[in-house]
Q: What sequence folds into this?
């Protein structure tokens, strides 16, 4: 981790620059796969599953038997842990349901909004180095709370034509019944356009590699919604002189182990602490199996020492991290001043990993500075809100002149007439 | 308007097909303008304003004097109307503010969400055939409620280098102080990338022609958020035998006059009513100044007669209209069954034009079937929701085993370690 001492505010932008990934070179390749699946359905899915994953599959749907078998393959302890996490995620997300509130804006003019679950949604769970069953909970639980009618899940199978048992257990637990063994661009294509076995959905959620990210961008241009734009995962820790260097080092490492492109940023008011954290990182690195990945990530990471806590807050807000840990004496006060972040972890006993799994908050969060304008996934992500208005005859009288004058000024006679014809009736 | 009698459900998809616009032919041209403004700032803005609008501007910022002059140019009645509309929009949208609610998911584990206004937003108000000052209210009021710190507005000036006084009055009324006379792709570019005079924003809102739509799509791929994907405006009316043919005709016309590409759909359980409505349209057409535009729109429009009201509801849900008017005896019951629509107008005294201007609901709504997965603009569109968690030492103990087991199963040692190191401390 490179250390920067008291950088000038004019250098912040450069200092906070994230690596940019140009996915335009992938676009043609991804487009071709999308179009092939759109036109040739299951046939193309099978072809790409063989080509990219080296697996010959005749049936993508996970059977009931497979789900039952998966449950038997997991320890009671892990199943209990997944259940506990699911309970907390459910408890937190259930509070996001909004009730209908009728607002009478003028006598006889009632307006309201109602949240309605998006009918058909697709969840993508990548394969790769870690079986992300926690993401199944993070996407599946709010989808269920939102009352989405059709929830499908796609994930690439392993060489034995199976999905990881924890993925199946988590999906079963949240009530997802349609699980397909298909991954990559071809999975995104199948959910976007539909095939003989996989039904098209209206919105696609979930993480993925650069090909999947590119595919999600492209299908968005075809009118299918996606959860949010993606980028490598990241953490920012604000630490003052009261922070525990061991704890801070463990948090930075838990981000660094995600991937070689993970972004780790330490902002501190205390140069000694930064040194201590660096030492602790070297000690703790020895104990983790993904050491190589973590070292690569740390090479691209930065520690910044600032003059005072306000500068730290401003710097964090400018960076807009996906995860922000506040390891400071007055963490609560600092949290109040944060305006750009995905999820905030307050104090010494709130490591990022609790939010990644089980505190209750969602772990699908805006990366790459998108926290400046995007929220993480929540029940909101799985609903659309329809507005309604009902006017009585009196209500229409109240507002008639207003509408007529405005329509006239905008040059829209027929708009005016729709009111006038009712008033004059 | 072409009439279709009792179509078979298998023909619905074709029947409800919207015209598709291929904007890929515009992409290169739009990209070049975006890049030019990105690189050359105000110089490029001036160039394109001259080239496309035929106006030579040295200063894009609307002055205080111009705003004062605008106020004097409007009638007291229109100003009062705009004020009334603004009041209703404010009343309705203010209820969309969500309070922080702390959820204790387990003893010592507190989680919550907080809505924070997106710091910098840009509103685009097109020029063209109608001065859309109502859109200034519809975007500016929720932006102010959301507490966005920087709200800028771009709109192309007329040949006299002025903006329409009603646009300036509405902007001033809602408290927007930075108004720039620039339109089209170059305005979107300026707000996305910033120039010497116009500051870059994080999210861009507002309607526009196909070039503007294309520009918004492209800048979205560069990480700037947009309100929603766009398409031509549309209305669907569900009318039973109790509907008033005059009212229905006036509603269809008020949509048809928007533009030649406006979509108008009448669904009725009663063939006689459809005939009556068609007759009424011909009568009312004579009274409107935008008759030509309306006729063009009606040529592409459809009336569909269905077997019963449930079929009408299903058809409307399949179409997912931007605006849905329910002109039926039991309009309330029908409204309950609507799952895909932007905004719903219930009963005989709720014409679309009240929602377009003044009932209080927002008129920036999902078109083109996007109501299946997108909501209209609301205060939600101008905020992001940050999640927070704070664990006590006891709280961390409660959840430690859960997180450790899950992290281990996902193969993420450092995640596990971030908990263990705190527990063992």
A:
């Amino acid at each position: 981790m490179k250390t920067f001492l008291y950088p000038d505010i004019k250098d912040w932008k450069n200092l906070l620059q994230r690596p940019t990934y140009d996915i335009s070179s992938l676009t043609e390749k991804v487009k071709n796969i999308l179009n092939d699946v759109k036109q040739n359905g299951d046939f193309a899915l099978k072809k790409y599953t063989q080509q990219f994953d080296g697996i010959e599959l005749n049936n993508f749907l996970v059977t009931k038997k497979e789900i039952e078998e998966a449950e038997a393959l997991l320890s009671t302890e892990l199943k209990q842990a997944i259940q506990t996490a699911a309970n907390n995620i459910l408890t937190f997300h259930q509070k996001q349901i909004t009730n209908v509130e009728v607002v009478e804006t003028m006598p006889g003019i009632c307006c309201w909004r109602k949240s309605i679950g998006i009918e058909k949604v697709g969840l993508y769970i990548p394969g790769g180095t870690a079986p992300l069953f926690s993401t199944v909970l993070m996407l599946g639980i709010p989808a269920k709370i939102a009352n989405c009618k059709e929830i499908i899940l796609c994930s690439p199978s392993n060489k034995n034509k199976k999905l990881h048992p924890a993925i199946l257990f988590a999906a079963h637990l949240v009530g997802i019944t349609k699980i397909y063994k298909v991954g990559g661009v071809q999975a995104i294509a199948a959910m976007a356009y539909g095939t003989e076995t996989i039904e098209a959905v209206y919105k696609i959620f979930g993480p993925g590699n650069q090909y999947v990210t590119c595919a999600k961008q492209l299908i968005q241009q075809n009118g299918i919604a996606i959860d949010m734009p993606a980028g490598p995962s990241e953490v920012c820790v604000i630490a003052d002189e009261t922070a525990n260097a061991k704890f801070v080092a463990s948090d930075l490492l838990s981000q660094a182990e995600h991937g070689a492109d993970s972004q780790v940023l330490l902002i501190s008011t205390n140069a000694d602490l930064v040194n201590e954290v660096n030492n602790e990182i070297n000690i703790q690195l020895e104990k983790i199996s993904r050491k190589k990945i973590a070292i690569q990530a740390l090479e691209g990471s930065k520690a910044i020492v600032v003059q005072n806590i306000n500068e730290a807050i401003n710097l964090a807000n400018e960076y807009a991290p996906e995860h922000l840990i506040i390891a400071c004496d007055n963490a609560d006060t600092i949290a109040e001043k944060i305006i750009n972040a995905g999820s905030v972890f307050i104090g010494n006993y709130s490591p990022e990993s609790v939010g990644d799994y089980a505190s209750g908050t969602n772990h699908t969060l805006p990366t790459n500075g998108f926290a400046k304008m995007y929220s993480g996934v929540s029940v909101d992500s799985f609903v659309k809100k329809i507005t309604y208005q009902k006017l009585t005859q009196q209500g229409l009288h109240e507002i008639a002149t207003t509408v007529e004058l405005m329509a006239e000024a905008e040059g829209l006679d027929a708009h005016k007439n729709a009111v006038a014809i009712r008033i004059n009736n």
About this structure: Chain B touches chain A through 130 residues (CB under 8 Å).
